[in-house]
Specification:
Acyl_CoA_acyltransferase; two-stranded antiparallel ribbon; 203 residues; 24% helix; transferase; acyltransferase; 5 helices; alpha+beta
Length: 203
Amino acid sequence: MSVDAYGGRVAVHEQAIDGFGTVRVLPLDPKADAGVVHGWVSEPRAAFWGMNGLTEEQVREIYAHLDTLDTHHAFLALHDGEPVGLLQTYEPDADRVGECYDVEPGDIGVHILLAPAGRDGARPGWSASVLTAFSAFVLVGLDRRRVVVDPDVRNEKAIARFLRQGFERGPVVVLPEIDLPDVYLPEKRAQLAFLRRETAFRP
Protein backbone atom coordinates (compact mmCIF):
# COMPACT_ATOMS: atom_id res chain seq x y z
CA MET A 1 0.00 0.00 0.00
CA SER A 2 1.10 3.56 -0.60
CA VAL A 3 2.12 6.01 2.08
CA ASP A 4 -0.58 8.63 2.41
CA ALA A 5 0.34 12.28 2.73
CA TYR A 6 -2.00 12.58 5.74
CA GLY A 7 0.45 12.08 8.57
CA GLY A 8 2.76 9.92 6.45
CA ARG A 9 0.87 6.77 7.45
CA VAL A 10 0.69 3.65 5.31
CA ALA A 11 -2.83 2.98 4.08
CA VAL A 12 -4.19 -0.44 5.05
CA HIS A 13 -6.74 -0.23 2.23
CA GLU A 14 -6.94 1.84 -0.93
CA GLN A 15 -9.82 1.71 -3.39
CA ALA A 16 -10.83 3.71 -6.46
CA ILE A 17 -14.62 3.97 -6.68
CA ASP A 18 -16.23 4.93 -10.00
CA GLY A 19 -17.71 8.41 -9.94
CA PHE A 20 -16.39 9.13 -6.47
CA GLY A 21 -12.62 8.96 -6.31
CA THR A 22 -10.07 7.14 -4.19
CA VAL A 23 -10.73 6.16 -0.60
CA ARG A 24 -7.78 5.34 1.65
CA VAL A 25 -8.16 3.74 5.05
CA LEU A 26 -5.42 4.54 7.58
CA PRO A 27 -4.82 3.42 11.16
CA LEU A 28 -6.16 6.14 13.45
CA ASP A 29 -3.49 8.14 15.27
CA PRO A 30 -5.11 9.07 18.63
CA LYS A 31 -2.94 12.16 19.07
CA ALA A 32 -2.86 13.50 15.51
CA ASP A 33 -6.52 12.74 14.73
CA ALA A 34 -8.16 13.72 18.02
CA GLY A 35 -9.10 17.17 16.74
CA VAL A 36 -10.84 15.84 13.64
CA VAL A 37 -12.68 13.09 15.52
CA HIS A 38 -13.66 15.44 18.35
CA GLY A 39 -15.19 17.81 15.82
CA TRP A 40 -17.32 15.02 14.37
CA VAL A 41 -18.47 13.40 17.64
CA SER A 42 -19.35 16.78 19.17
CA GLU A 43 -22.05 17.53 16.58
CA PRO A 44 -25.70 16.96 17.50
CA ARG A 45 -26.06 14.54 14.57
CA ALA A 46 -23.48 12.28 16.27
CA ALA A 47 -25.44 11.99 19.52
CA PHE A 48 -25.80 8.22 19.11
CA TRP A 49 -21.99 7.88 18.99
CA GLY A 50 -22.04 8.65 22.71
CA MET A 51 -19.27 11.26 22.91
CA ASN A 52 -21.25 14.51 22.90
CA GLY A 53 -19.87 16.78 25.62
CA LEU A 54 -16.40 15.24 25.77
CA THR A 55 -13.29 17.38 25.44
CA GLU A 56 -10.71 16.80 22.73
CA GLU A 57 -8.35 15.43 25.37
CA GLN A 58 -10.97 12.93 26.55
CA VAL A 59 -11.50 11.77 22.97
CA ARG A 60 -7.74 11.37 22.56
CA GLU A 61 -7.57 9.30 25.76
CA ILE A 62 -10.40 7.01 24.63
CA TYR A 63 -8.69 6.23 21.34
CA ALA A 64 -5.29 5.92 22.99
CA HIS A 65 -6.82 3.25 25.23
CA LEU A 66 -8.43 1.56 22.20
CA ASP A 67 -5.01 1.52 20.56
CA THR A 68 -3.69 -0.72 23.36
CA LEU A 69 -6.27 -3.47 22.66
CA ASP A 70 -5.75 -6.46 20.39
CA THR A 71 -9.48 -6.92 19.81
CA HIS A 72 -10.57 -3.37 18.94
CA HIS A 73 -9.08 -1.07 16.28
CA ALA A 74 -9.84 2.37 14.83
CA PHE A 75 -9.26 3.70 11.32
CA LEU A 76 -9.62 7.01 9.51
CA ALA A 77 -10.91 7.13 5.93
CA LEU A 78 -9.67 9.77 3.50
CA HIS A 79 -11.20 10.84 0.20
CA ASP A 80 -8.71 12.64 -2.00
CA GLY A 81 -6.67 13.43 1.12
CA GLU A 82 -9.56 14.75 3.25
CA PRO A 83 -10.93 12.84 6.29
CA VAL A 84 -14.41 11.49 5.52
CA GLY A 85 -15.12 8.78 8.07
CA LEU A 86 -14.22 6.88 11.20
CA LEU A 87 -14.25 3.07 11.28
CA GLN A 88 -13.93 1.00 14.42
CA THR A 89 -13.61 -2.77 14.22
CA TYR A 90 -13.89 -5.26 17.05
CA GLU A 91 -14.08 -8.97 17.77
CA PRO A 92 -17.73 -9.64 18.70
CA ASP A 93 -16.84 -12.30 21.26
CA ALA A 94 -14.69 -9.71 23.07
CA ASP A 95 -17.51 -7.14 23.09
CA ARG A 96 -20.87 -6.86 24.81
CA VAL A 97 -22.65 -7.50 21.49
CA GLY A 98 -21.31 -11.05 21.66
CA GLU A 99 -23.67 -11.66 24.60
CA CYS A 100 -26.68 -10.83 22.41
CA TYR A 101 -26.37 -13.06 19.34
CA ASP A 102 -24.72 -16.29 18.20
CA VAL A 103 -21.25 -15.29 17.02
CA GLU A 104 -20.09 -17.21 13.94
CA PRO A 105 -16.48 -17.91 12.93
CA GLY A 106 -15.31 -15.08 10.68
CA ASP A 107 -17.59 -12.45 12.23
CA ILE A 108 -16.32 -8.92 12.82
CA GLY A 109 -18.14 -5.99 14.39
CA VAL A 110 -17.90 -2.43 13.14
CA HIS A 111 -18.93 1.05 14.22
CA ILE A 112 -19.02 3.71 11.51
CA LEU A 113 -19.23 7.49 11.78
CA LEU A 114 -19.28 9.46 8.54
CA ALA A 115 -17.97 13.02 8.35
CA PRO A 116 -20.45 15.88 7.90
CA ALA A 117 -21.12 17.17 4.41
CA GLY A 118 -18.29 19.30 3.04
CA ARG A 119 -18.35 22.84 1.70
CA ASP A 120 -20.37 21.77 -1.33
CA GLY A 121 -23.03 20.05 0.77
CA ALA A 122 -24.27 16.47 0.56
CA ARG A 123 -23.41 14.53 -2.59
CA PRO A 124 -25.47 11.61 -3.92
CA GLY A 125 -23.68 8.34 -3.37
CA TRP A 126 -21.17 9.78 -0.88
CA SER A 127 -22.17 7.58 2.09
CA ALA A 128 -22.54 4.48 -0.09
CA SER A 129 -19.06 4.97 -1.57
CA VAL A 130 -17.36 5.26 1.83
CA LEU A 131 -19.32 2.27 3.15
CA THR A 132 -18.31 0.28 0.06
CA ALA A 133 -14.63 0.93 0.83
CA PHE A 134 -15.12 0.00 4.48
CA SER A 135 -16.90 -3.24 3.51
CA ALA A 136 -14.13 -4.21 1.09
CA PHE A 137 -11.44 -3.52 3.69
CA VAL A 138 -13.16 -5.52 6.43
CA LEU A 139 -14.48 -8.46 4.40
CA VAL A 140 -11.66 -8.86 1.87
CA GLY A 141 -8.68 -7.03 3.38
CA LEU A 142 -9.22 -8.58 6.83
CA ASP A 143 -10.59 -11.82 5.33
CA ARG A 144 -13.84 -11.93 7.31
CA ARG A 145 -17.04 -13.74 6.42
CA ARG A 146 -19.65 -11.47 8.00
CA VAL A 147 -19.97 -7.95 9.41
CA VAL A 148 -22.25 -7.14 12.34
CA VAL A 149 -23.42 -3.62 13.21
CA ASP A 150 -25.41 -2.55 16.27
CA PRO A 151 -26.80 0.98 15.77
CA ASP A 152 -29.08 2.43 18.42
CA VAL A 153 -32.62 1.35 17.58
CA ARG A 154 -33.62 5.06 17.47
CA ASN A 155 -30.98 5.86 14.85
CA GLU A 156 -33.28 5.31 11.89
CA LYS A 157 -30.98 7.05 9.39
CA ALA A 158 -28.05 4.76 10.17
CA ILE A 159 -30.23 1.65 10.06
CA ALA A 160 -31.71 2.65 6.69
CA ARG A 161 -28.20 3.35 5.34
CA PHE A 162 -27.00 -0.12 6.33
CA LEU A 163 -30.05 -1.82 4.82
CA ARG A 164 -29.51 0.06 1.54
CA GLN A 165 -25.93 -1.20 1.58
CA GLY A 166 -27.11 -4.81 1.62
CA PHE A 167 -27.15 -5.54 5.35
CA GLU A 168 -29.82 -7.95 6.56
CA ARG A 169 -31.90 -6.78 9.52
CA GLY A 170 -31.38 -8.90 12.63
CA PRO A 171 -33.05 -8.80 16.02
CA VAL A 172 -33.43 -5.82 18.35
CA VAL A 173 -31.33 -6.55 21.44
CA VAL A 174 -30.38 -4.83 24.69
CA LEU A 175 -26.62 -4.39 25.05
CA PRO A 176 -25.77 -4.55 28.76
CA GLU A 177 -24.25 -1.65 30.67
CA ILE A 178 -20.46 -1.74 31.04
CA ASP A 179 -18.97 0.04 34.05
CA LEU A 180 -15.21 -0.51 34.23
CA PRO A 181 -12.33 1.75 35.34
CA ASP A 182 -11.27 2.36 31.72
CA VAL A 183 -14.66 2.48 30.03
CA TYR A 184 -18.32 3.18 30.78
CA LEU A 185 -21.09 2.34 28.33
CA PRO A 186 -24.76 2.70 29.28
CA GLU A 187 -27.33 0.06 28.41
CA LYS A 188 -28.35 0.33 24.76
CA ARG A 189 -31.26 -0.99 22.71
CA ALA A 190 -29.67 -1.86 19.39
CA GLN A 191 -30.82 -3.02 15.98
CA LEU A 192 -28.45 -5.72 14.84
CA ALA A 193 -27.78 -6.08 11.11
CA PHE A 194 -25.46 -8.38 9.17
CA LEU A 195 -23.60 -8.28 5.87
CA ARG A 196 -22.13 -11.50 4.48
CA ARG A 197 -19.20 -11.41 2.09
CA GLU A 198 -21.11 -13.25 -0.62
CA THR A 199 -23.89 -10.64 -0.41
CA ALA A 200 -21.53 -7.65 -0.51
CA PHE A 201 -19.69 -8.98 -3.54
CA ARG A 202 -22.51 -10.72 -5.35
CA PRO A 203 -21.72 -11.00 -9.12
